[in-house]
Design goal:
seven-stranded antiparallel beta sheet; mainly beta; about 230 residues; 12 strands; 4 helices; globular
């Protein structure tokens, strides 16, 4: 038996991996960036084959990795995690720099960036594992890094289907232990809280209304109100 929830206990961070190919910038959110050697300094990253960023990295032979800070905004994470680089310019509304090799590196809400040259690619089934030799590294912030647990427990984020750690559509959400209010249980039960959950990215907004405003847009993935369902919190 394989209990996929066990994988949640593996320590990992949250990153943006980016590249440029055919005069277009590509980027996606991953939790798979790891340092694999120190001399020479090399990083590995697994990217889903169906992700346009994967084919772009193959074409360019280069990638940048940016480390999200604990304060990274959900709209920024949503843009790079739930949208397609072929359809949307993910870099249009975020701060980034271009390295010496013309590859974009996200600097907004990032505490460090790495520029890498791909030296090996391993086919691992659904993903390509890119091994990159680090040719440039820079500290871009002093905040703590965001872990994948922070993303789920603090930010309430959902795992995209193309992520290495995706557990399937029926996976139980990761939940933090709720703070216990000092009030009688009867009173707490008499006042349920309601909100709306995005069925695309999992974003939850606490808004006790029968219908969301017509112009409501998910701040994480940019989808309209039609993909939201009313839930009890």
């Amino acid at each position: 038996m394989i209990d996929k929830k066990a994988f949640r206990n593996l320590t990992c961070g949250l990153y943006v991996v980016s590249t440029k190919a055919d005069d277009r910038n590509y980027g996606c959110v991953v939790n798979t960036v790891l340092q694999v050697t120190s001399t020479p300094a090399q990083l590995s990253v697994a990217v889903n084959k169906e992700n346009t960023t994967a084919s772009a990295i193959q074409k360019s032979g280069r990638f940048c990795a940016s480390i999200f800070s604990i304060d990274a905004s959900m709209p920024l994470i949503g843009t790079f995690g739930f949208k397609n680089s072929e359809e949307v310019d993910k870099f249009a509304d975020c701060e980034y720099m271009v390295d010496e090799w013309g590859i974009p590196c996200v600097t907004q809400d990032a505490i460090g960036t790495f520029s890498c040259r791909v030296v090996n690619t391993v086919d691992v089934g659904t993903h390509y594992l890119f091994i990159g030799e680090v040719e440039r590294a820079e500290i871009t912030g002093q905040a703590a890094p965001m872990t994948y647990a922070d993303y789920h427990l603090v930010k309430g984020g959902k795992t995209p289907p193309k992520a290495s750690s995706y557990e399937g559509p029926d996976a139980e959400p990761v939940q933090a232990a709720p703070a216990q209010a000092e009030q009688p249980a009867e009173e707490a039960q008499a006042k349920p809280r309601y909100g709306w959950r995005c069925e695309i990215c999992g974003y939850v907004v606490e808004m006790d209304v029968e219908e969301l405003p017509e112009d409501f847009v998910c701040p994480m993935c940019g989808m309209g109100r039609d993909v939201f369902v009313r839930i009890e919190l």
